[in-house]
Amino acid sequence: MPAAKKAPRFEKTSMKSMLSSWAEQFSLWSNCSIQGDNRSIIRIPLRAKHPCTSYCYAFVTIQYVRELYHTPFLTLVAQASRVHEANHTYNDIQRCTLLSVKTGGCPEDCAYCPQAARYHTGVKAEKLMRTPEVLEAARNAKANGATRFCMGAAWREVRDGRDFDEVLEMVRGVTDLGLEACATLGMLTESQAQRLKEAGLYAYNHNLDTSRNFYSEIIHTRDYDDRLNTIQHVRDAGITVCCGGIVGMGETDEDRIQFLLTLASLDPQPESVPINALVAVPGTPLGEREQIDAFSFVRTIACARILMPKAKVRLSAGRLSLSEEAQTLAFLAGANSIFLGDKLLTTPNPEPDADYRLFEKLGLEPSAMTTVEHSA
Ligand code: SAM
Ligand code: DTB
Ligand code: SF4
Q: pTM to 2 decimals?
């Protein structure tokens, strides 16, 4: 079961008056209705420290997220851009590298995934890679400017034993290289999360993927609460949480709104929020799906930035289908990380040279794109 919500540190009445005075300052809550059903509490980090706290608690209602999501595009991007500027540096785009350390043969039925054994996608099941090979890839990633290295395994869940021990060895090695070690291995128990933390893991990626409602149309072999439980184990172990999802799977706007509300209501909020555009892989049930339009994609990024001001919002899978201009709009709307390298886990990603050309056009010096934040 997900942990019970922590009690807010303010009475609702005093919070209401604080909110109204701070709302203008942050331009965030001017449309926010704090009455209504289906509301969640989220913590909004303050830009300027209040004498008694550095956080303001706010009720974010589903109505608020709905209004936000349907804000006229230019107003929404401008608002997201202000939130981005207040919390991050525009020109600081983190480069991360992905490596599939255990590819294919997965027993799950995620409708988007080329690694599910049951779909005929041409992805062959492979054994777990060995640590020296992984560390060589991590060293190359670092030499190319990556500050985060994410290791993915096509597992439903982690099983204790030789393979997990090898992954712990990889985590130790990547951490020793001075990189943020990230892993995405499927479901975890509390003690497995603890062992990953002890090995030095900086972040664990486990996506909610979409709304609770639409999730059941996409995945049948585990449920939404399984995902939330693993996220809680990661949080309890003191590892930073990387949690996001995929847009363009046929979900409605309302699904995206519910998904954003659930993400923003995680307490504390995820430090990292990957927003993937579906890569439609032939052979998967979603293989024929049309590409999401860039405006809806950027709209989702902008909402994530406004609702989770401190998070790294990651422009993740699907960049090959986005023009340079659409990617730039996503940066303006608050995305501040990309995966660098010509492959994601199993699908193609832009060539590094193409990314360097884009960075040059945007006037980004490679050194200015490096951020290493340590300690969870
Ligand atoms: N097996 C683990 C799990 O499911 O958590 C880790 C690997 S899984 C490939 C990591 C994430 O990649 C998924 O949660 C999903 O959000 C994303 N992903 C997988 N296939 C994708 C696709 N075709 N397009 C976009 N994102 C995808
Ligand atoms: C995430 O949300 N996106 C990345 C990372 N987390 C592990 C994975 C994208 C995978 C895209 C499909 C593939 O290449 O297999
Ligand atoms: Fe397996 Fe993860 Fe792919 Fe689902 S997303 S089929 S769990 S590798």
A: 0.87
